[in-house]
Amino acid sequence: MILDHRTYQLRPDSLAAFLELYGREGLPIQKRHLGEPFGWFVSQDIGPLNQVVHMWKYRDLADREQRRAGLAADPDWQAYLKKASPLLVTMENKILRPAPFFDFA
Asked: In this structure, which topology does domain 2-94 adopt according to CATH?
């Protein structure tokens, strides 16, 4: 198993708008293609502000590639991205593998 760990830095004062838009439009589309997220978090008061972190679990890189290709090809997702992208400053992505002694399957 692998974990796709994404951090989005949002423009100041856009966190609430992003969360509302994502919850209403983005999440349902992603769930159709990616399944349930492993976790979804918002930074608050300590450390970098205006950030969201979300994680998605996949069997392997091939599974991730296939599911994300389906998402990218979805016209609803492309329409959502046109609305959400102006709210973002940066995006960071990491692929995490579990340590040998930890199984999150």
From this structure: Alpha-Beta Plaits (3.30.70)
Kindly state the average pLDDT of the residues 64-82.
Answer: 98
Asked if residue 84 lies in contact with residue 49, where contact means CB atoms within 8 angstroms, the answer is no
d(CA 53, CA 38): 11
For residue 27, what are its two tokens?
A: 């999440």
Domain boundaries, the chain: 2-94
Q: Which residues contact 65 (CB under 8 A, 6 or more apart)?
A: none
Q: CA 46, CA 68: separation in Å to the nearest integer?
A: 32
pLDDT at 47: 86
Average pLDDT over residues 35-50: 91
Cβ contact 57:3 at 8 Å? yes
Query: Is-contact 52 45, C-beta < 8 A?
Result: no
Res 105 pLDDT > 80: no
Minimal CA–CA distance to 53: which of 22, 25, 77? 22
